[in-house]
Amino acid sequence: MKKLKRSARLVELTQYLTSRPHTLIPLTTFADRYGAAKSSISEDLTIIKEVFEEEGIGELLTLAGAAGGVKYIPRLSREKALSFMSELCVQMEQPDRLLPGNYIYMSDLLGQPAILNEVGKIFASVFADTPIDVIMTVETKGIPLAHATGTQLNLPVVLVRRDHQMTEGSAVSINYVSGSHKSLHTMTLSRRALKEKSRVLIIDDFMKAGGTIQGMVDLLDEFNATVAGVGVLLESGNVDVEDRLWADYVSLAKLTEVDAKSKKITVQPGNYFENVSI
């Protein structure tokens, strides 16, 4: 039990809530933790709720009844998300990021915790009201994005591998066609990694025609699982709609132009920000 002044209690309450997103916490937990009456805790939570909503930090849900409590839902407004992604798009446009085959080097960006944290918040905001059991991604560059999103949604992450690992036991493997090269590839998922009939959010770093996404969707069919949503950090805008192998997705950035000769790269905010202005 901690005896704290109200100002200090507000600070610790805020930290406690934000470190446990999408987790229902009974008021008795706080009452016992701080040795305070539930009425005092309720007043503190009202103050935090107002600040969260005014500053666009998130939402604080209160559930009444014996089984009730309070739950923090991270939410980043589209305006703030657009401001962040616009700055990230500028970083992606650096000429030295252009790789052979018109790919964009992003590993350094995906290695920065501050960037991952914000991208995770955006994806968590997009899918905050969607029933999800687990997040799925394919190795390797999608892993940090999936974990950042999983942290904000308080959900486990399932990793699809390109090759079967003996340490993961029996697995389901499928072949899929890469949308970018029209070549055949294999992906595999451990039978123990995903429960049947799970609702799955797919997160990936880059999507061209959607072949990898479609492969993961086909893999989910083997588990009788359903796709709750698809989120990609960067999509290629140079693919015709009829050539898309997967069309239902949310993108945060779009690669609209690549000129290998002049090394010009143009990246703009993705389809999530349509009709949104800063």
Task: Give the helix/strand layout.
Blueprint: H1 6-18, H2 27-34, H3 38-55, E1 58-63, E2 69-74, H4 78-92, E3 98-99, E4 103-104, H5 113-126, E5 134-138, H6 143-153, E6 157-160, E7 171-177, E8 184-190, E9 199-207, H7 211-221, E10 226-236, E11 250-259, E12 264-269
Parallel strand pairs: 5-6, 5-9, 9-10, 10-11
Antiparallel strand pairs: 1-2, 3-4, 7-8, 11-12
Helix pairs in contact: 1-3, 4-5, 5-6
Structure description:
By secondary structure, the chain is α/β, with parallel strands linked by helices. It has two domains: 6-74, Arc Repressor Mutant, subunit A (Orthogonal Bundle), CATH 1.10.10; 78-273, Rossmann fold, CATH 3.40.50. It contains seven helices and twelve strands. It has a six-stranded mixed beta sheet, sandwiched between helices. Strands 1-2 form a two-stranded antiparallel sheet. A two-stranded antiparallel ribbon has the order 3-4. Strand 11 (250-259) and strand 12 form a beta hairpin. The longest helix is centred in the N-terminal third of the chain and has 18 residues, at 38-55. The radius of gyration is 21 Å and the shape is globular. The termini are far apart. The mean pLDDT is 91.
